Amino acid sequence: MAVKHTVMLLVAVCLYLPGLSHGFQPSFSVDETHRNITRKAVLRKTAEVCRDLAAADGRDFNLKIDDNLSVQEVQKACFSSSTSTAPLSTDIFQTALNEIYGSNEKVYFSLVDFPEFHFHSETFLGGRDIITRGMSVVKASVKLENFVAAREVLGQICHIIQDFYSHSNWVELGKTTPYSALIRPDQPLQNLAGPFTPTCKSCTGDACADNILPEVLKQGLLTSGYFSTFSSSKPTGKCSHGGLLDKTRKRDPVGGINKDSFTSDHGTLHRKAANLAVDATMELLEDIRLAAGDRNFLRLMGLSQSYALCFVIDTTGSMRDDIAAAKQVAFNIIDSNAGTLQEPSQYILVPFNDPEFGPVIKTTDKNYFKKEINKLTASGGGDEPELSMSGLQLALTSAPPSSKIYVFTDASAKDSHLKSTNIALIERTKTEVSFLLTNIFFSRRRRSIDGQDFSSRAVRLSNVQLYRDLAQASGGQAIEVRKSDLSMATTVIKDSSAGAVVTVFQVVMDPGRPDNFNFTVDSSVSNVIIYITGVSSLTFTLTSSAVVSQESSQTSGPLASLTTVGNLRRISLNAGNQTGFWQIHISSNSPYSIKVTGQSSVNFIYNLVELQQEGGIRPKEGRPATGGNVTLLVTVTGSDTVKVTEVTLFDSSVPKELTGSIQSLESSNFLVTFSEVPAGDYVVRLQGEDTSTTSRSTSDTFQRQASTRITTASLSVAAQADSINIEPGTSITIPFTVSSDVTGTFRVQVSNDRSFDFTSPGNVTIGPSNGGKANGTITLTVPASTGSGTDVTLTIQAQNAAPTDTNYAVLRFSVAAKATDLSSPVCQIVNISGICNVSSTLCASSQWEFIANLTDGINGTGIASITIREGNGTLDTSTVVGAGGENITLVTYTASCCSQNVVLAAVDRAGNVGTCMGQARLLATPAPMTTTTPVPTTTSLTTTTPIPTTTSLTTTTPVPTTTSLTTTTPVPTTTSPTTTTPVPTTTSLTTTTPVPTTTSLTTSTPVPTTTPVPTTTPVTPSMTTAAANTASTRGHTMSVTHYVWVSIAFSLLFK
């Protein structure tokens, strides 16, 4: 067995050093961090979406939505309606959140000297431009179901908008709501301090709370602190950011205005800035939600119970039987899991042949996937080998992280040079790859299909080893079977699609030798399956904690049932006796593998990280250094009551096992550090205890193992582009650096999954005087025809001359055309008809109707979708052409009086979002009738509104009819409305106007006889102008036509 080495790391890990920040701390601090801000916003918004979906379906949603939500609570609440007995897994959700966190943190560390990424140095226009362009990229990526690329951009723009509230004086100006114009390119940024306007005075000693000039605050001018890590220069009289990293802070006026932490110059406002950053992030997420739709928004957040179903299939002539088996298993998984939590979150298909591979088919529509996989036919390919590595590369860059990919082939790899590229992508994405190989036994057998000779289409032994190496690196399996037995082997695919599948134990022994292997099954695990691959002569003995044994010769015994197909043995433990300590003895001198899986909500995910001097932890790119420290950020999923007791790195080739030092952080996160890790290929193993119980029985102790390996390297590759977005028809330059303690020439291999043109050096040289580094540049060109939302993954590898050592950098870019439509759809209300009784007991017997025109302007991209955001009615739409040639979408919404409000969201083809709001007219209870002498009466009504908005309305209303009114563009004037009513009776009006707008009314109402009644008119004020105000608050401005109606003839009904 392995020799275990315990690493005693007696150091205090400092995750935060005050004064070294240039923004909110990225993660894990006593202060509010970018990670915490993002977590609060994402979990709250995700919970809101789940709550709204539940309400629309008439389901209960029992979760208090606040800043204290956990991943487990949100996941459980969102899937509370499921009747499935399978355990809930938060792995996919947590992995998606970690992607967003990681991208957010990269901005902090990698783009520190780009002021517009942090709103430093009054770069408000530049920062807003990055945010709004990024939002367009996210929406376009979601539309193409490129959720991973969307998360990367989302994390970046979340960081930028969060920094605004810490780095500007928005909080000092007394603002308590987010600055919505930052996510609206069609709205002006107002009251920006001019480039020559002084904004600060020097701090007095350590006191910096009042260093912003009073006249700046009085005039409401917006400013932010200047920041630089290399220069103390800044414009005269301007504020500095502050902090030890900021060299401008000592230039007059000295000090800073940032609110990054409680100890910052304006640290007393840190909490307010962080709370505003949470609200602003939620506002940004809401805009994306409206554009994407609720279901796709939840997919973007990774809220799913099942991984993607991903097939890479050889479509050459000899693969007819294999394709049929792949179709069969795919259809079986789709049909059996439809409508359940185990339904795959996405379907991905990559065909390959020679000389072609792809295109990738990626969809969430199971019927469309069925249609596409049904199109596959076997043809050509008699010259073997095929482009299996190219197909796998495309799948690895298309599938979500931690996916399971299944490759079907009976041929060798023609493009084996991509092996190291695919291993790099496997390590980066932590994806598990399994191969179903069907022709390795028949190298001398001739086969003819449709007249084609396939006698040479046997998988060569060298390529069998290639497939085995990739499977081992990913934690997958290389299953070798006869074509006639392939359908039996596909059982492993069905097993993995069960949902909440965890790896309890896994080991690969190459070379093989007889050995004993132990593992523990805790009480949360069910449906335990053991997979063993190896030669046919391999035997095993399985022993339970009750000291009951079963031999490999028993297909059905006291412990398990056994199925053998090809080189695979599938051992399914009998239900009822799975919990406890197990041992399996393998007898074989040939290579073999063991993998133990089960279903459980408790698991863990990890990421390689680096501790930073300025505080926080930074995602580690590429492989860790041989002989150096390895640091992991481990997140336990599925439980808030788990204690991690041991984390080890295990290398089965020696074998050896290293034990790490564990530091508990927040929210089930743990920092694990290994010191002086020698060269090797390691897997991560974790043991822990469930602290929710008081007993310490065996069932309370659990163990889990990560699938993919961690490989060390003695060289490193670093690459950084100044943008992750590229316009079609343009090129981007990516500088990279190869570092090594050894001089020499290093081979550089570059590839991208879209086959875009690029230029790069074939090698770089590190000389004695180069400081252990060599630089190079790559230029990637995106074709002009590439659509917005497309993503491209660039892999850069460096290899020593031996070649015995390799490292890599992986970058993902999103393609985004320059936006020309920056305006949101506009709403004009045409009519509201029907009157609803205030009594809820009578609401079902009455209906009301809301009619509006939605336009996107003559130069707009056009309205793409209209959805009901609030309301339980029905929506009908039709399109007409307006007088100016613009398309007008006429919407008619009808609902019962039990649902008296409606909010519609209109999205144009550029992803801009507008909302349209309406409210039913209410029938008030009549007042007692009063008779008076008919006299002409003039009623003067004056309304004053404390914001610069005026809505001018002119209405002639022959009572009791409703007349359509017109709304003009809001202007900063106040007009008192005057109403003249020549009627023979005195009319008493009660007007309720809960809106911050000024309404000018001129109404002529000739009524022959009226009995005075109190009249409430909520339609015009509370629906239209309140809608305008709400839309403005959210950043979605609407042009609204107002309606005023007066009903004062009820006495006629009673006489």
TrEMBL record:
Positions of the VWA7 Ig-like domain: 723-817
Major place of residence: secreted
- Positions the record marks as coiled coil are none
Region: Disordered; residue ranges are 927-1034
Which SUPFAM superfamilies does the record cross-reference, listed alphabetically?
vWA-like (SSF53300)
- The chain positions of domain Hemicentin-1-like von Willebrand factor A read 308-483
Chain ranges of the Hemicentin/VWA7 galactose-binding domain: 502-601
Q: Does the keyword Ubl conjugation apply?
A: no
Q: Where is the composition biased (Low complexity)?
A: 927-1033
The listed locations are:
Secreted
Which first-to-last residue range defines the signal peptide? 1-23
Q: Where is the VWA7 N-terminal domain?
A: 70-298
Q: According to its UniProt record, what is one Pfam family this protein matches?
A: Ig_VWA7
| UniProt keywords, alphabetically | Glycoprotein, Secreted, Signal
GO terms for CC?
extracellular region
Top-level taxon in the UniProt lineage: Eukaryota
* PANTHER family recorded: NG37, VON WILLEBRAND FACTOR A DOMAIN-CONTAINING 10, TANDEM DUPLICATE 1-RELATED
State the name under which the record lists this protein: von Willebrand factor A domain containing 10, tandem duplicate 2
Species for this entry: Oreochromis niloticus
Q: Which gene encodes it?
A: LOC102079154
